[in-house]
Amino acid sequence: MRLEGLHRTGCIAIVSLLVFSAGCAAKRVGEATYAESAQEAYEVALGDLEAQNYEQAIAGFEQVRTKYPYSSFAALADLRIADAEFGRGRWLEAIDAYQAFVKFHPTHEKLDWAWFRIGQSHYKAIPSDFFIFPSPSERDQTEARAARTSLADYLSRFPKGENVPQAKEALGEVVDLLARHELEVANFYAKRERWTGAGWRYERVLHDFPDSRYEADATLGLANALREQGETERAAAVLEGFLAKNPPDAQARAARSTLDSLGKQSR
């Protein structure tokens, strides 16, 4: 009887172990199937994205994040939806989608890409004719300013990011664009001999856009506006500061000539 009881107990233990092992194996298979299915669905949508089938790609990525929310591909799907919006030129929708990715996935390995694309989307949203004829419209300038801020933010956060060269190039264009707008407004005032308003705008170019290619034009304009207002000492200081930090090129020679004329005027 005792041996029979031990035999029965041993059988039960073996059966339990087999059931437990089978359950674990099934769980692992289930997990593998879930991950593999998520990856497969993601790759199908990614193929549509690469083929520029943007609407179909977005639908596929939305299915990934809805059907497989606990897989690593759900976060990637969020990012690729933003890429699809960018790809079809819907800049504002792309900005919203990239910002959502940054907000909900703040430690993701693709975070630098999302930050870069936010800046690039603002840059793309600037009306094309604004680069030729800078508009006084606040709406147009809003996108240019947003591009400047977001591109500078990307460069600050990811100084060694792989998209740094592109970001620097775009930022330089935007800074020149905004500086040129301010310069044209300053010149508008100067032509009408409204020297106070002209001087303020020239100063704004120098203060807000110190790295723009319009520094020399703004410096000469400011010096002239100050001279016209009788502030020759300030005008001379502005020119001397410019000459001290710039090489002796054509613009520097123009600044030197203006400075020399101020010296003669003050005698």
Outline the secondary-structure elements.
Blueprint: H1 2-50, H2 54-67, H3 72-87, H4 91-104, H5 111-125, H6 138-157, H7 164-191, H8 195-208, H9 215-228, H10 232-245, H11 250-266
* Main CATH class of the domain at 38-109: Mainly Alpha
Task: Determine the number of helices (DSSP H or I, runs of at least 4 residues).
Answer: 11
Head-to-tail CA distance between termini: 129 Å
Number of strands: 0
What is the helical fraction, as a range of percent? over 70%
Backbone CA Rg: 32 Å
- Please state the overall shape, judged from the principal axes of the Cα atoms: elongated
Question: How would a textbook summarize the main sheet?
Answer: none
**Architecture of the domain at 38-109 in CATH?**
Alpha Horseshoe
Mean pLDDT: 84
**What is the oligomer described by this structure?**
single chain
CATH superfamily of the domain at 38-109: Tetratricopeptide repeat domain
CATH fold-level label of the domain at 38-109:
Serine Threonine Protein Phosphatase 5, Tetratricopeptide repeat
Query: Which residues form runs of ≥5 with pLDDT under 50?
Result: 9-30
- Which sequence of SSEs, written as H and E, runs from N to C? HHHHHHHHHHH
How much strand? under 5%
Structural class: mainly alpha
